[in-house]
Amino acid sequence: MSQKILQACPLPPPLAAKLPSLCQTELLSDAPDQAAFLRERGGEFTVLITTGTQGADKALIDALPNLQAICSLGVGYDAIDLDAVRARGVMLSNTPDVLNDCVADLAIGLLIDVVRGISASDRHVRRGDWPRVGPTMPSTRVSGKRLGMLGMGRVGQVIARRAIGFNMEIRYHTRTAKSELPWQHEPSLIDLAQWCDFLIVACPGSPETFHLVSAEVLKALGPNGYLVNIARGSVVDEQALVAALESGQLGGAGLDVFENEPEVPAPLLSNERVVVLPHVGSATRETRAAMCELVLKNVERFLTKRSLVTPVEL
Ligand SMILES: O=CC(=O)O
Known about the structure:
- The chain has 2 domains: 5-96 and 286-305, NAD(P)-binding Rossmann-like Domain (Rossmann fold, 3-Layer(aba) Sandwich); 100-276, Rossmann fold (3-Layer(aba) Sandwich).
- The chain has helices at residues 13-18, 34-41, 58-62, 82-88, 100-116, 118-126, 129-133, 154-164, 189-195, 215-221, 238-246, 266-269, 285-305; strands spanning 5-7, 25-27, 47-51, 69-73, 91-93, 146-150, 169-173, 184-185, 198-201, 226-229, 252-255, 274-276.
- By secondary structure, the chain is α/β, with parallel strands linked by helices.
- The strands form 2 sheets. The chain has a 7-stranded parallel sheet with strand order 8-7-6-9-10-11-12, sandwiched between helices. A 5-stranded parallel sheet has the order 2-1-3-4-5, covered by helices on one side.
- Bound molecules: glyoxylic acid.
């Protein structure tokens, strides 16, 4: 059958503008009644393009009976119903590697910000508190500290390499040790949290990683410990995080991701020891352009060869 692309949501202009040169494409959110659109025309589409945030649920996948490939903009695919994808034999691609540097840069930026109190000090100066009460209190040293990594995949390894430049000692927790890496594997996340000064979350969001950073882990990280999450909000028990911060059981947190985006719990917003960002790990012009290019390459490869450049192993 002839190929047709459905865009699940508006895509960045450089990507959306090039798609029509590959094949006919429609934007689901242009339809005034999306359910009616899918009922009437769902059978026309063989390729779905979505984003890591938008994902594709079972209802959408079911509404596309001739779907053969999903090309997603972003490395994480936790918002895509993988059971439905597998059951239907649909191919899936994401955009790995091209975003490693920028996500790692942001992780280190968040870490330094929350530990040294950069954003909090900025607010202090803007409020006019410097001439009134003096500078902010001394913060905590970053260089030479112990860094615990939860997850040591593509992004995690780039973060760890940056941390070497800060003379940090590095250990990591993953399900299985990666013997090719120079860093010590820690089989217990609690033990890792106890050992480290800073815990950076860099593992995928999935049912297996849901709430891995529990109240117990946060307690082990302790009042002088800091949490940074650039991965997925679902990995951290957000209520437990709020409680640990409010009770002073945790030193601070730098967060680019949240459990229920774009909602950020009010106690996190009002806490001076928390830095919050709107899920912008990969959001530089250069990296977003590279991600768009990779989606295009995947779509093109699928349309011409029925294979993908960066397939997700399902
Ligand atoms: O969160 C962003 C991504 O998964 O690429």
